[in-house]
Structures are given as C-alpha cells and as structure tokens.
Design a protein that fits this description.
Blueprint lengths: L4 E4 L2 E4 L3 H4 L5 E3 L3 E10 L3 E10 L4 E5 L16
InterPro entries: Developmental_reg_ULTRAPETALA, ULT1/2_SAND
Protein name: ULTRAPETALA1/2 SAND domain-containing protein
Organism: Nyssa sinensis
Amino acid sequence: MENGVVRENGAAAIVFSDEEVREMSGLKRGDDYVEVTCGCTSHRYGDAVGRLRVFVSGDLEICCECTPGCHEDKMTPCCI
C-alpha cells in the first residue's frame, strides 16, 4: 500500500487518502489494511487501549492491549 492505495491484480483501490489520515497518530498501513491505536471498551474488562484494523475487504479487527498477558486478541466489534 502506498499513499492510501492498495494494488490488487494490477488495479488500484483507494482505502483512505493521505488527507483523511494525516492527523491520526499511531497509524500503520499494511498491504491490505490500515491500523490505528485507539481506546476500546469491553463489556467484560472496561476501558483499555487497543488497535483497530480496517481491511480493504471492509472487515474490522480489534486487538486488545489492556494488560500484559491478555488473551483477548483479534476481536470483532460485536465482541466489544
């Protein structure tokens, strides 16, 4: 991914433009996703830090970082 563009089979698909994400801190771009550090609230564990990953396919994934050793990883929004 380069400048918010994902290349699939030689075609380009825009996920988020540079303008849309320029003020976001903790942003990471992968080959098929963008990821941002955020706060999340679990109905079981309360407020915590996490990472929200948005895939080109539209899928969302949340990785909890509430405490060291937490086994709640790669949750979907319905789990929160």
